[in-house]
Amino acid sequence: MLKIQLNEQLSISKLVVGCMRMNDWKLSVKQVVEFIEWCIERGITTFDHADIYGGDHRNEALFGEALQLEPTLREKIQIVTKCDICVPNAKNPNVKTRFFNTDKQYVLAQVNESLDKLKCGYIDILLIHMFDLLVDPSELNETLQQLKDEGKVKYFGLSNHSPLEFDTLQKYTDVPFVTHQFMLHPLGIQNYHNGTMTHCLKEGISPMIWSPLAGGRIFNPTNAAEENMKNVLENIRQELGLEHIDEVVYKWIFRHASNPAIVLGTGNKERIERAIKSVDGVQMTREQWYKILIEAGYTLW
């Protein structure tokens, strides 16, 4: 499995296990340990979390129980987690409306809670989950610097920010953002339309792409446009001699010069194996790549 070097000290795996639905996989703690070991054996060493993942925000804790059961795993992996989304649920009875919060006290508390749930002493990469329109960039800089100085977070990045939002926060922040995580798939190319992918090239950072298969709509279209895209992907699959259309999607994402990582939102080993196969091997042609982009609704001129 290829690695992506985010800076001189930090690398992540080209494929990342997204743990948003881990609680739905119905794995015991021992089975989570076995799953992490299985991924490591195949070169997948990066695991993506957020403080709100899991119906009762439990997913970090489940992962932490696995690390507690097998402590040697921690130094073999990179843990990514996120914070700043406040959601109304049983865990937050005082929250009535979903909102974003980058206040220093809140971010520090959430990181401490994530560390407690993950049963580890540090987070490899902390992402600000969504852009907070009320952010105080100078205060956020103080917060991130404190987390770094305390050894609780090694590196930082952003998630779901526009290029302007990214640049604005980076202007005030002394710690460089090492990655940007956002959605991209053949049914949703807004991050080509708005320049986010090009911005990654400008900044020299490798993005982390989530929902590459559009939540399964790549396989199960819900309208005529999605059915058309499935047919386009099937034709290219045949041209490339691949087994499944998800491999076509992965190769389409990997083709970009920013050297993206893909966050796989699945614990299905067969699907993960197919993603591993897509990292190497036959490369998609420019014409095939542009065919998908145009059919997704991108106007070249």
From TrEMBL:
Record Pfam families: Aldo_ket_red
Family annotation (SUPFAM superfamilies): NAD(P)-linked oxidoreductase
GO cellular component annotations of the record: cytosol
Gene3D superfamilies xref list: NADP-dependent oxidoreductase domain (3.20.20.100)
Boundaries of every NADP-dependent oxidoreductase domain copy: 14-291
Highest taxon of source: Bacteria
Protein name according to UniProt: NADP-dependent oxidoreductase domain-containing protein
Species in which this protein is naturally found: Paenibacillus durus
